[in-house]
Specification:
heterodimer; A: 292 residues; mainly alpha; 11 helices; 2 strands; 2% strand; B: 379 residues; alpha/beta; Rossmann fold; seven-stranded mixed sheet; five-stranded parallel sheet; 12 helices; 15 strands; 20% strand; globular
């Protein structure tokens, strides 16, 4: 019982973490909120569906192309929308609103191109999960949990050890000083979007396999991912992962004891409490002196 | 800067003037056209938003029926024109849609769906003596919404009574409920509870889920651990599919039961092999296929490249039923149309034999079905 609940929490948390990681990376480096991240995930899932289920390209090849597509789409939103706004000295609030608009626009495009019906990727057969100490888990769910943790590990390595990673941390810490030492903030922003959206591409594949595709999936994922990121500390990527898993656990354990209609209520109450009592989240650090 | 703002403001005023002129001129033109050349029927459907698939399927059914009727020369020589409007499935959307269609398009006959939208427009339609013919809308409040308010669906009350009796006879006395957490779901829950308790059974556990949920695992776990021997799902087709899939993945063996929304290609898409064995209530018997049914299914497949879904079939019937009533009436005489609708008894439609009761609700034959090898068959 407890173990199954734990597993349910891990699965939900891993899915939220996949969303929150890319989103949090973009926020911590570029310092604005990119709600359209959810739509990048949704669009990439549908792109995968188009390649694999409609055209019939090999799944693994389609998956790689979907990740590339996600990275390009994310980069596109930065270059075509956010950069243009930044050139006009738009405030972060305006960029946030524009990201909302982008989310709605992209989802409407999905509706136009693919229709409103739920789509399935049809790559894995539906079967009873594997027994594990009295609980049940499917191979895909194991991949999702391990995948999100592996992504986190890879990401930490990347940020600590690679030149680009260090440059991103520099820009995140203090954009102006970073430019002084010769790091092009504009280039770094682009790279951030590429990497963050590539992570979204991975999320798109796994979530698409686990939950089926629908046009509004981006919004739902973004709400949960954003909540997880805020709980864990919105400036911190490991925090986003931690917050997401915590959210997954809280939801599943919560509705074991409370009526299950309260699932969303639990998520939002926790978000609310954190914003009130610990706005920097669990791992968030107070960063001073970096006002745009 | 100043010059630029000036130009922008001027352009906006110019555009507004042009638009107003266009609407003003063409608006009255179509007003005249309605009386002379077409029968305009409004369709307020959830074409976008959470339940866009419902609106889309209904639109497909409606379009199919209209093209058939118009190909045969329309009604009394006049073609039908459907004016669609998107309600997004919300109350405000329903009200805005009604206002736009009745005031700008001069519509007097409305098709509509979702309890939110229908209940928003119903009082106004009733007051203005306009026909409001709802498609597949669940709430019991619609029955008493008015004389001019009609509904084509499998009535929840009848469906639940039939389901309760069938399950009781099969020996399922303790029932678990997995219900969508909105007003429609709540009215189903109350009705299910009442029916089962009347028959001497009990509801062992009720679990709910938010609209657009994708993860039912913990709710299913709770239901599995309870005393319930069967689990009834009140959910849309896609959600039911995911529920079946997750139940199978979790290794849950209890009988899962659904309502008429269970049947549709999206169920098999979402659940795959996990769909086999689900029990559900429905109105369409594949073995008793009439000529009408066969033709409908063929036409649907030809037009849209896939098999018909329940909402499309119901919507198709709405149009056919309306057309029947309109045959003996002037399209502007809503009182005549109303009377003609109430007269309909045992009309052959795609969704079974349809009759209207005094509330304007339809009654249909109900049967128990299941899924075997990915096919929807009689139980």
């Amino acid at each position: 019982m407890f173990l199954q609940l734990l597993i349910n929490g891990l699965i939900a948390g891993a899915i939220y973490a996949l969303v929150a990681t890319g989103f949090s990376l973009i926020y911590s480096t570029c310092k604005f909120i990119h709600f359209a991240h959810g739509a990048v995930i949704a669009f990439s899932s549908y792109f995968l569906y188009w390649l694999f289920s409609l055209i019939g390209i090999n799944f693994w090849l389609s998956a790689i192309m979907a990740i590339v597509f996600a990275a390009l789409l994310g980069l596109g939103t930065n270059v075509l929308i956010y950069q243009q706004l930044q050139k006009k000295k738009a405030s972060n609030v305006i960029i946030l609103i524009s990201s909302f608009a982008l989310l709605i626009l992209l989802e409407a495009l999905i509706l136009i191109f693919f229709g409103a019906d739920v789509k399935t990727l049809g790559f894995l057969k539906v079967a009873k999960g594997l027994p594990f100490l009295g609980a049940v888990i499917t191979p895909l769910q194991i991949v999702i949990i391990l995948g999100s943790l592996a992504l986190l590990g890879l990401f930490l390595f990347f940020m600590r050890k690679t030149k680009l990673g260090k440059a991103m941390r520099a820009v995140s810490d203090n954009k102006n000083v970073a430019e002084v030492v010769g790091i092009s903030a504009k280039k770094i922003y682009n790279w951030t979007f590429i990497i963050g959206s590539a992570i979204a591409g991975v999320a798109a594949i796994l979530i698409g396999l686990e939950q089926n595709l629908e046009p509004m999936m981006g919004t739902n994922l973004m709400i949960k991912g954003f909540t997880g990121a805020v709980i864990g500390g919105i400036g911190s990527v490991p925090g986003a992962v931690l917050g997401s898993f915590l959210l997954g656990f809280a939801e599943n354990f919560g509705i074991w004891f409370l009526p299950s209609g309260y699932k969303d209520a639990i998520a939002f109450v926790i978000l609310f409490l954190f914003l009130l009592l610990r706005p920097n989240g669990i791992l968030g650090i107070k960063k001073g002196g970096d006002k745009k | 800067m100043k010059k630029q703002t000036g130009i922008i403001i001027l352009s906006i005023i110019l555009v507004a003037l042009v638009v107003a002129l266009v609407i003003g001129l063409t608006g009255s033109e179509t007003g005249r056209t309605v009386k002379e050349k077409q029968i305009k029927i409004g369709a307020s459907l959830p074409l976008s938003g959470k339940i866009a698939y419902m609106g889309q399927h209904m639109q497909e059914g409606i379009d199919l029926a209209v093209s058939e009727i118009n190909a045969k020369g329309g009604i009394n020589g006049k073609p039908i024109k459907i004016v669609y409007d998107d309600t997004q499935g919300t109350t405000k959307g329903g009200l805005d849609s009604y206002n736009k269609l009745s005031q700008i398009d001069n519509i007097k006959i409305f098709l509509s769906a979702t309890t939110n939208a229908v209940m928003a427009a119903a009082p106004l339609a009733e007051e203005n003596k306009q026909i409001l013919f709802a498609i597949a809308t669940a709430s019991t409040t619609i029955s008493k919404a008015g004389d001019f308010i009609f509904r084509n669906t499998l009535l929840a009350q009848q469906e639940i009574k039939f389901l309760a009796n069938s399950l009781n006879n099969m020996g399922y006395k303790k029932i678990g409920l997995l219900i969508i957490g909105n007003s429609g779901g709540e009215s189903y829950r109350q009705a299910l509870k009442k029916e089962f308790e009347t028959l001497g059974g009990e509801i062992a556990l009720t679990e709910k889920f938010e609209e657009q949920s994708n993860d039912f695992r913990t709710q299913l776990l709770k239901l599995d651990k309870s005393d319930a021997t069967a689990i009834i799902c009140v959910a849309h087709t896609q959600e039911t599919g995911l529920i079946l899939r997750q139940a199978k993945e979790l290794g849950i063996n209890k009988q899962i039961v659904g309502m008429f929304a269970t049947e549709g290609p999206s169920l098999i898409e979402a659940a795959g092999e996990a769909a086999d064995g689900v029990l559900y209530t429905h109105f369409f018997d594949p073995d008793k296929q009439t000529q009408l049914n066969k033709q409908y299914n063929q036409k649907y497949l030809l037009a849209y490249g896939r098999e018909s879904e329940p909402y499309a079939a119901l919507a198709y019937d709405n149009v056919i039923i309306l057309a029947h009533a309109l045959k003996n009436c002037d399209p502007d005489d809503t009182i005549c149309i109303k009377t003609e609708l109430y007269k309909i008894q045992n009309m052959e439609t795609v969704t079974g034999k349809t009759s209207f009761d005094s509330n304007g609700d339809t009654t249909k034959e109900i049967i128990l079905k299941t899924v075997r090898n990915g096919k929807f068959v009689l139980y």
